[in-house]
């Protein structure tokens, strides 16, 4: 059972997608994943993209930077991975999927130098890997155990 109460008292069922300065709502279904077991947070949102008086498709494209809010709280900040239309005799649905910025860490390879770290702690390695991908990092605790790490091209 999912029980969610947003900070600040917002509607816990109100999902918004912010893309290119526009706020999109009215989602008919959604799935938002944030878990320590997942390499990156993700979302899947579906809406009927046509209703009376609405004639233009939503200008959301793969690669667009986005933010998903639930109940007024930001849950995912990242990029749109895919958009898709689903047609039926009585409806036309638009689905948007994406992941948070750590999705870049999952998809990308590190091709810079150094490609080897000796005696470096996890914070130092992450500080070298994450800035080119626009992924902010923070580390809890101190005195990380030094590690030897090599990345093969």
Give the arrangement of secondary structure elements.
Elements: E1 15-19, E2 22-24, E3 29-33, E4 42-48, E5 65-70, E6 73-88, E7 91-100, H1 103-107, E8 116-120, H2 122-129, E9 147-150
Antiparallel strand pairs: 1-2, 1-5, 3-4, 4-7, 5-6, 6-7, 8-9
Structure summarized in a few sentences:
This protein has 153 residues and is mainly beta. It has helices at 103-107, 122-129; strands spanning 15-19, 22-24, 29-33, 42-48, 65-70, 73-88, 91-100, 116-120, 147-150.
- Give the overall silhouette: elongated
| Record field, number of beta strands | 9
* Poorly predicted parts: 1-6
The helical percent reads under 10%
Provide the structure class: mainly beta
Biggest sheet details: 7 strands, antiparallel
SSE ordering: EEEEEEEHEHE
Descriptive report:
With 153 residues, the protein is mainly β. It contains two helices and nine strands. It has helices spanning 103-107, 122-129; strands at residues 15-19, 22-24, 29-33, 42-48, 65-70, 73-88, 91-100, 116-120, 147-150. The strands form two sheets. A seven-stranded antiparallel sheet has the order 2-1-5-6-7-4-3, with no helix packed on it. The longest helix is centred in the last third of the chain and has 8 residues, at 122-129. Mean pLDDT is 75; it is low at 1-6.
Comma- or semicolon-separated keywords:
153 residues; mainly beta; 7-stranded antiparallel sheet; two-stranded antiparallel ribbon; 40% strand; disordered N terminus
């Amino acid at each position: 059972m999912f029980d969610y109460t947003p900070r600040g008292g917002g509607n816990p069922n109100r999902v918004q997608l912010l893309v290119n300065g526009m706020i999109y709502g009215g989602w008919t279904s959604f799935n938002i994943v944030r878990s320590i077991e997942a390499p990156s947070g993700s979302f899947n949102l579906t809406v009927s993209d046509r209703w009376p008086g609405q004639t233009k498709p939503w200008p959301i494209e793969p690669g667009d930077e986005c933010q998903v809010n639930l109940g007024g709280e930001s849950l995912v900040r990242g990029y749109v991975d895919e958009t898709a239309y689903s047609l039926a005799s009585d409806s036309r649905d638009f689905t948007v999927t994406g992941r948070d910025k750590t999705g870049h860490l999952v998809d990308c390879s590190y091709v810079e130098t150094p490609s080897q770290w000796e005696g470096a702690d996890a914070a130092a390695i992450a500080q070298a890997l994450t800035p080119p991908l626009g992924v902010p990092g923070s580390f809890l605790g101190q005195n990380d155990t030094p590690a030897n790490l090599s990345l093969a091209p």
